[in-house]
Amino acid sequence: MIVSQFVPPRITIREDDVDISDSDDDDENLSENFNTCHRALQTVARYVPSTPQFLMPILVENFPFINKSERTLECYVHNLLRVTVYLPTLRLQILELIIEKLLKLDVSAPQQDIEDAEEAANNSDSEEKSTEEGLFDMEEDEERKGNKVVSSSSERMAHPLAERLDILMTILFSYIKDVCHVDGKLDINRTKDLYRDLVSVFDKLILPTHASCHIQYFMFYICSFKLGLAEAFLDHLWKKLQDPNNPSVIRQTAGSYIGSFLARAKFIPVVTVKACLDLLVNWMHKYIDNQDTGANAYCDVALHGPFYSTCQAVFYTLIFRHKQLLDGNLRKGLSYLQSLNFERIVMCQLNPLKICIPSVVNLFAAITRKYQLVFCYTIIERNNRQFIPVVRSGTGGDLVQTCTNPLDSFFPFDPYLLKRSKKTIDPFYQFWEELSAEDLENLKKPIKKGASEDEDDDFLKGETPQNDGVVGIAPNSYESNTRSPVSSIGSPADCYVPYPQ
Question: Does residue 395 carry a pLDDT above 70?
Answer without folding.
Answer: no
